[in-house]
Design brief:
Distance between the termini: 38 Å
CATH superfamily of the largest domain: Phage P22 tailspike-like, N-terminal domain
CATH class of the largest domain: Mainly Beta
Strand content: 35-45%
Structural class: mainly beta
Number of helices: 0
Number of domains: 2
Oligomer: single chain
Number of strands: 14
Length: 203
């Protein structure tokens, strides 16, 4: 039997919500090997002897009917769906909280995250913080790109920072806007080509 630990952020007390804020009644939580569509097991008990169904069907409150324990030797991908099978969110490279990586790695014991550029950090409140960097954007041009994770409800705030320092003769500046729930556009308002970092907060 595998050595297991509770799934970070999803194992106990997790509640899946629909975009309208209602519980994801009869929604499904599928588990795969990280970076693939190969299903792998999770477990209902600390002994790792009883496997959860895959997909796990959420109850009327949008919660898993059993705790979710992960094999410490594996990396997971979680796919959250509504009752009709529409994909609401995907969380990849989830490290079990007691794995060697999980104890000091990307997700830690309580949060789902992608510690990279671009990357993201989920908070227990459901707030999602995302960040990234662009390549050089020509003067007066713009760049449209996909966020690591689409926002289900709203983008609350977004900021963009030029990497160049500029000067009084050639100031650097930019602007950011949400195109849709999963896409943003950055405008380069500088007189020269410029790269930017960006930060977005929503839920």
């Amino acid at each position: 039997m595998p050595n297991v630990s509770i799934a970070p952020g999803l194992g106990i007390g997790y509640q899946g919500l629909l975009p309208n804020g209602r519980p994801n009644n009869a929604g499904r939580l599928r588990t795969f090997q990280a970076g693939t569509t190969t299903p792998i097991a999770t477990y209902t008990n600390q002994a790792g002897t009883i496997a959860n169904a895959n997909p796990i069907v959420l109850n009327a409150d949008g919660r898993p009917p059993q705790p979710i324990w992960l094999d410490n030797a594996l990396l997971y991908k979680f796919q959250l769906e509504d009752a009709a099978g529409n994909v609401l969110a995907t969380f990849d490279n989830i490290e079990p909280s007691a794995s060697a990586a999980g104890l000091g790695g990307n997700t830690g014991p309580a949060f789902l995250a992608q510690r990279a550029v671009p990357g993201y950090q989920w908070l227990p409140s459901g707030i999602l913080i995302q960040w990234g960097a662009t390549v050089g954007i020509a003067s007066s041009a713009n760049l449209v790109f996909a966020l690591p994770v689409a926002y289900s409800n709203a983008l609350l705030s977004a900021v963009v920072t030029p990497l160049g320092t500029g000067n009084s003769a050639t100031p650097v500046s930019g602007a950011i806007e949400l195109v849709n729930a999963g896409t943003v556009r950055i405008y380069n308002k500088s007189a020269t080509s410029e790269a930017f970092t960006w930060l977005a907060i929503g839920y």
